[in-house]
Amino acid sequence: MMELFSYGPLGWGDEILAGLWVTMRLALTTLPVGLLLGFAVAALSLSHIPALRAIGVGYTTLMRGLPEILTLFIVYNGLGLGLNRVMAWIAPEAGPVDFPPFAAGVIALALVFAAFAAEVLRGAFQAVPEGQILAGRAIGMSARKIFWRIKLPLLWRYALPGMGNLWLNLLKDTALVSVIALDDLMRATKVAVGVTKQPFTFYLVACLIYWLMCLLSELVLARLERRANRGLRRA
Amino acid sequence: MAFLDTLATNLPKLLDGTATTLALTGLGAAIAAAASPGLALLRANGPLPAQLALRAYISFVRGTPLLAQLFLVFYGSGQFRAELTTLGLWGFFRDPFNCAVLVFAVNSCAYQTEILRGGIQAVPLGEVEAARAVGMSRPTILRRVVFPHAYRIAWPALGNEIILLMKASALASIVTVFDLMGRTRQIFSRSFEFSVYFQAAVLYLIITACFVYLWRFAERRLSRHMAAPGRA
Q: Where does the protein end up (chain A) (predicted)?
């Protein structure tokens, strides 16, 4: 039993760890990309210009209404077809090429993450009390200083619980990329199952690894939230 | 326009897939909805061992990808083929549709239980005390006071959960169920028509929009007595 998961040529421990590494890299690469995109979409949704606001609201509605796996296929196949069309034009003699699945995974997951993150950020921005901004202005802070010293710290505090949930969803959604030929934890498990014919054992281990990652994330998030709320009086 | 040209040929298959998607979601959500009230009560004020077991179950479901849960049941059951055959259950687990419904029900049940627990705990204590004061028995209090109010509180969150389940049901296509996503992938793999993905996207959005409309309608009926006088 234990030797199935040992390190080296006999066991699957190293393959599964390599898959885990891909999963973590994928999630950690998607997070900043998705956050930046989320900020941009939130800014659009809060814009005073109706056309921009419509784009922001339309994007979040659309992306949140589609299954993640459909978005992933649209991005992966769409980018693949587009890339081949461009390649056929630049270098017709070269054969068909595959769009790198890691990049396709990051783009698709970031597009989805951004839509949900934009909603969390929009809610947090609107929760910043007007009085605090007025107080900042009253003591002569510049708009930029008000953003960095007042709005951003409050935004962090209000958005953190929602962002934490989104991070957990992202971590779990990375499992989807295994269907577009990316060697993540899920796919490494699938390969091991194919050889050992022990699907239950291996998928259970994969589940336990994901669970552990989520539990650890929850611990870190709870600490971050405590830190973000320091100095706050509770009723 | 490629979108409309191919839509006519694709539509029968896509609608067939849509029916499967609705069946997957409806069955999964309904089974979960049948089990969640009892579990939510246990989770709210049951004996400690039951509460701990429920917390572990909910944490596991929430902490693992649905795809992994689906593979664990669909492929994992193969490891116990002999045992399942003697129990007469192998026929059930061999069908990917059954496995998907089972996994979706177990998954959604965890979320619905948490949502409903929140609703039960948000029912004001005064209402329960008033019911007790007029001599209602505990089952009557649950039936007449606690659950009606808890469902009203939990209703929007339950709707969100069902929409999430509908979207997640697209994963069934990976274990060869021909739901909307499965039909879409089948059409794409045969024809390489990219527009079929957009047709599927529109269908998914239509399902969501219809559901949101129905759910809001039901919500208005649930809280008719609270509507402002004059607009009902």
A: Cell inner membrane; Cell membrane
